[in-house]
Amino acid sequence: MSDDFDRNTGSTPERDSYELAYEQQLRNFTDPDNRAPTVPVENLSGRDYEQHPNRIGRGSRGNIPGRRSAKGRKRSKVKTKQSHIDRSEPLRFGQNHASGAAQVKKRSPVKKIIIILLIVFLLFIVFVNIMIFRYIGKINKKETGTRRFTTASVYSDDVLNILVIGSDARDSSQPGRTDSMILLSFNKKSEQTTLTSFMRDSYVMLPEYDLDGDGSMFGEGDKCRLNAAYVYGGPELLMDTIQYNFDIRVDRYIYVDFFSFIDIVDSVGGIELDITDEEADGMRAPMYEQNKILGNPWKTDYLPCGGKGIRVNGNQALGYARLRYVGNADFQRTERQRIVISQLMKKVSGLGLFDKDKFACALCKSITTNLSSWELYKLILRAPSLIKYETKQLRIPGDKEYSYAMTPDGASVLEINFSSCTESLYSAIYG
């Protein structure tokens, strides 16, 4: 046993030096304001600090001497060798923790901006889809009924043809004859919208329909005015009749009645029209009937005179669109109907976001269509660009594409040059 061993305390000078260094570092750690000078490791005895039985570290048993096994000391030596501790530096408590916190990398501001923009974009997509399905939910959707004629030589995948049917039904629950038949054509290739009015007195053949009940079809007795096709077979027969006689594909339809039209125009705050004094006076006859249907007092919305850019409400716009006995009869009436639709589209394109939403809600709940939910989704999604398309107008038949004729029962009709009309349709819509 060494001569330096103290029999009373069980310690050696070497052990006392280590304990003194440990206690000094502990005081420096717990009481930084009362730090004592640090004793460097090299001032201790030559014994390896890592091998001292009282060091605090992995595998240590605290201050209890003699508790660590030889195997534990061996494992400790291996780990100490791998950690490459520099024993020339003084002991520092909590130094690794502080340096680790300082080394936390800051996130790049560019990445933050990209993440924020991505979140905003995703929220915008969710919002748009919620609004679209909200509109679709308001539309009265119908399944397409039986179509008797589904082929036509004039068509293109770039063009969507929707037949807008305006009915003169006095009772919204009963079908009436079609006052307005306008083919709304969207050509995405040329970015053009074409409004084509079909004259209601056009004398046409009902395809695969035995109108006179003689047991055969496509006979003289199976012809009628175009606006009667809706009464006999609904929107499907009307689409087939236009497709068969004019050889142009009609994809879908939208049905609007008196009441719906008034609500749609009122939803945008009215439209501006150029109205002559003669037209203002002539509007009173259809408006007299409209006021009775709507329950309005007599002379409601009558115009005292005409003028340029007169703002009219839905009731007045309907009276203008239905005006037949001023000017060139039904020919000029179809022109007025196209003017009303064009002015409505122009008004909508200049509306703010909330006013456009009001218009969309009024339009959707006012129409009946056989467009599917998916087709409506795509159409509504494209609406902001469609409303900006260049708009053209066309009337079928044109000035030199008809002649006056009489039916067997003495009714006045328009005898149509169908081949010439087909060429006109192709040139205006697909050209």
Kindly give the count of domains: 2
Low-confidence parts: 43-67, 76-82
CATH architecture of the largest domain: 3-Layer(aba) Sandwich
Structural class by helix and strand composition:
alpha/beta
* Radius of gyration, taken over Cα atoms and rounded to an integer in Å: 45 Å
The CATH C-level name of the largest domain is Alpha Beta
Order of secondary-structure elements: HHHHEEEEEEHEHEHHEHHHEHEEEH
CATH fold-level topology of the largest domain: Aminopeptidase
Count of distinct strands = 13
> Helix segment count?
13
Fraction of residues in helix: 40-55%
The CATH homologous superfamily of the largest domain is called LCP protein
Give, in spatial order, the strands making up the sheet with the most strands.
1-10-7-2-3-4-11
What's the end-to-end separation, in Å? 115 Å
Question: In this structure, how is the largest beta sheet organized?
Answer: 7 strands, mixed
Strand content: 15-25%
Shape: elongated
Q: What's the overall average pLDDT, rounded?
A: 82
